Fold Disco-interacting protein 2 homolog A.
Amino acid sequence: MSYLLLTLSLSKGVPVNSRVSSKIQQLLNTLKRPKRPPLREFFVDDFEELLDVQHPDPNQPKPEGGEMRPLNGEPLGVVTNWPPSLLASLQRWGTTQPKSPCLTALDNASKPIYTLTYGKLWTRSQKLAYTLLNKLSTRNEPLLRPGDRVALVFPNNDPVMFMVAFYGCLLAELVPVPIEVPLTRKDAGSQQVGFLLGSCGVTLALTTDACQKGLPKAQTGEVVTFKGWPRLLWFVTDGKHVVKPPKDWHPPIRDASNEIAYIEYKTSKEGSTMGITVSHSAMLAHCHVLTQACGYTEGEIITNVLDFKRDAGLWHGVLTSVMNRMHVISIPYSLMKVNPLSWIQKVHTYKARVAVVKSRDMHWSLLAQRDQRDISLSSLRMLIVADGANPWSISSCDAFLNVFQARGLRPEVICPCASSSEAMTVAIRRPPEMGVPPPGKAVLSMSGLSYGVIRVDTEEKLSVLTVQDVGQVMPGALVCVIRVEGTPYLCRTDEVGEICVSSSSTGISYYGLPGMTKNVFETIPVTSSGAPISDRPFTRTSLLGFIGPDNLVFVVGKMDGLMVVSGRRHNADDVVATALAVEPMKFVYRGRIAVFSVSVLHDERIVVVAEQRPDGSEEDSFQWMSRVLQAIDSIHQAGVYCLALVPANTLPKAPLGGIHISETKQRFLEGALHPCNVLMCPHTCVTNLPKPRQKKPEVGPASMIVGNLVAGKRIAQACGRDVSQLEDNDQFLYMQDVLQWRAQATPDHPLFLLLNAKGTVANTASCVQLHKRAERVAVALMERGRLNTGDHVALVYPPGVDLIATFYGCLYAGCVPVTVRPPHPQNLATTLPTVKMIVEVTSISECIHSIQMISQESEFLRSTNLPLQRCSPTWTSVFLPQESLLGSRCCLTCHSSANNTSVLCGIDISNTVCFSQMSHAATSALCRSIKLQCELYPSRQIAICLDPYCGLGFALWCLCSVYSGHQSILVPPLELETNPSLWLSAVSQFKVRVTFCSYSVMEMCTKGLGSQTEALRLRNVNLSCVRTCMVVAEERPRITLTQSFSKIFKDLGLSSRAVSTTFGCRVNVAICLQGTSGPDPTTVYLDMRALRHDRVRLVERGSPHSLPLTESGKILPGVKVIIANTETKGPLGDSHLGEIWVSSPHNATGYYTVYGEEALHADHFSTRLSFGDTQTLWARTGYLGFLRRTELTDASGERHDALYVVGSLDETLELRGVRYHPTDIETSVIRSHKSIAECAVFTWTNLLVVVVELEGSEQEALDLVALVTNVVLEEHYLIVGVVVVVDPGVIPINSRGEKQRMHLRDGFLADQLDPIYVAYNM
């Protein structure tokens, strides 16, 4: 604000008399200058992709009742002999009634193993308190001081030791923090519990001897430090470790205060664990409230099935029971798993008056009750259902009553209650003797509830929710219902909201989280006029409900289970109930279903995860899944985004056997759930996608150029250096003439040096040696062949000097050589068709190969049906009769149309290979441009690690050394599979300044040598000599790979400026190449959303949706480039996206094809602009890109024009009216999971198909389906139609490391991929 005031005052005319003020004035003048308005008559800026806003349904039900009034509970009664604190009550019973039973623990055989009396509880708690305060010390300082937090780590089958430890901490004025026993380092939620302990400053953990022995140990014998946990001292509270206090030591028994008594943990919806602090006064008040509401009296027997460390199990079974000298029979969870009827048996045996259970316990006891007779529940006056707030607890209560009413259970005994960790007990149905109204039941419309409105319906319908009341508000409490979101306005009487409580018996805060505390524990509800309803703060309970007739409280859900999908509310428990209703026991294992929502594309999506029975078949699973989808859709009017089935007993468990929902959700999002069946339904669920782009009428070319001029933008055109001056060897038209000239002028000058996998020299060739070898080939061809001038000859050779010599031998003989990759001996079935197709397309008259291919000769002959000539490496064979050298074509270089090249072994290639023809003049011009750009001369050495069969790789292997006279060190890429360091070692050994490689070679080095840089350095590998390392590519530069390569090998001296890329294509194999001079390649960042609409919008690094794009080298000498509109064929302005057109002396002259597609030939290789410079002939590259004039200066002193290649036009995917580049989607997919090694996308019948290679266990295969669907939706607004998970190596890659997506598509359609899993998203 101070800066704003300063600028305002300056703008009013403060005199400018200093350097600072003049700068500020200049800034102000700039800000005042009006921005140039957009030229809407020339440009249509439609690249803003806006998600479809879900408009509310005009017919949706709205609340119509009046504003609710806060509801008061009955007054809290005054008890004359009520103790001033809970500890005072313990002291009273421990000294006056020492033999009165307090707690009975049972073993797994349902037998009592120990009964703790009040006297024992008092004395043992005193011993522990004294020991903690006086016998634990570090460096003569007490380890604990009053107010310190202490972790209580006790198993669920040892309530006695827990109770002693809990009251021992209270007597020592320490704050107990009860947590679950961590069994392994990877327990569900364990890391978050550790975070809670750390934030509470816990340094000591109390446990039992048996529990401590069962904890995982480190090699030193100490308990391991669990992930995310602070370092703890573990203290065993068994009798031998505590000491008896002196007779004059007495624990302080103070009146209840607002100091923290204990901290109860709670796990939020997102999985974070928070500590809820409860004060001594709130603990005492809650005991008072429960005593009055439940009518507890001294000496009553209560059966507790719940977890005694938290919630209702702690409140009734540990705290209120001591207040009233009650006897608690604690039923451990391990016993309930063995004998679900154990709690009923103990009610009968001990004539218990009260039982505290969950609806789950009632349900499982129903299944086992047939085995038990002679039991009576007539002694019960209260059966407290702790999770009565669960909407489907009513079914358990009704079923339990129907069965056990005949065994003495009275209907009015069942008392559901509602509670939350923050507000503790919110409401409870009173026992019948208190004269309360009869229980209520509400049948509510699910559709109305989804809009937050209460509408009564009839039970005959399926789409209704029947809920029971949870009784009356607690004594002394004030309760209201507020709106879930925004300002806490009071709800209307027929509106569902969050229940809030104002009472002295609630928690007071989240420990260490003041912001969340203020939001939850200090809420001030207001009326519709904005007036506060009370001066007392309210606590949010996270319970969703309403106040019904007779002031009964009804709960219909929880905030933690709330899922807001397309503006409608759904409760996770309701969806679970619906899923369970679909043949529950036949298919779902023990009813274990988890429902949660994940945020995808700015809306919540419902995910259902269920454990299937071990004997369930795949057919059964898909039948069940389809029925669940239909049921949820018809009952809840909500679509399920993902339905996953996992094997039995694999979902993370909560401490007492339930499903750990937040951990399950976390595993789903991390791809660690490992389902065995998945059904994704994004097409039906995702309704907020941007509207499909409607193609608008194209702006005319004339309007466009005028718009560029008005906007001050130049036409996007650039050219390389002038090449008018002649070189020494420009007098020769043919490459074979250059070789002959060099053989005479410098016969012994070395041209080629071939390395093998061991790094030793396998072959060399000087000028005269290469000339003589070529002559021998020519003589053999002329003597033995029946070839005519211009006939095509296939050279089927592995990379090496023999290939080069045979190439020039064909030129000497007047034949047109066609370099062909040999078929792979281990994969003839898929590589031979490639050779056959090349033979057919190029009308091959003769095939020549080396003696290394003899073993493949019979298969090769059968494949090609051609005569085969064999040459030995020593060139002693003779060939075909001589013809005169009259051919006008020099060579054919094999190229692919769009996606496919014919140089990758192991792939069945379709008949889309095309061959670009280059004249002799074009060949010489190409060599001249490369020579000038790279400053090549006879004393220079360059290293080449490329395949020699097509494109720039062919030119560098076979042409450039002969033309420029430099020595080429040849490293066949296949040798790197045996020795990954071969190429870099050669570069270092020969101190090469210029080297060329492919992306596949760079990736091989990055992955294979990433961890071996130190070993390479010890072998004296030094890359500081490298001035330029160029990646030969016909695609968008892979910035991530090149940066990784530079970073990894920086320690070996590789300059960060050395690595760059080249760009060429089938119409011109070398358009851009960094060379040895000129500015470094520049990088810009594009808005990916604008790019989808064929717009270039530059943004800052790190901006949302930003895409880094680096320059593809410098434009070669003699090359002119222009950016043209793909539709109008008119020139575009600077920084506008269009097709890259090129005009150059070394452009190819056309495709060689036997099908006579002249129109395709003319359009690609000789086309003209529709306006502007209409005389120049251009070749269309088929690649989208843009030119941008930078502030840098090139070698000629002019401002540098940078060319940025975006991607192949033929590969782009037109979906929803928008253009997508496959590499952008693939980058997102690879990033979504660590086990995705590679990815490729294509379209099939308007569906997006994503193929991912799984580099890991097959059990991770189905994890990828949801992650891939999510990331493509989030980042690209596309729904994936099919996800195909395959093994590594299935996606075909050519020799330059480029994906062959169309071959992959052909394999997918022909069912040849042998996938691990195929998911068809519905």
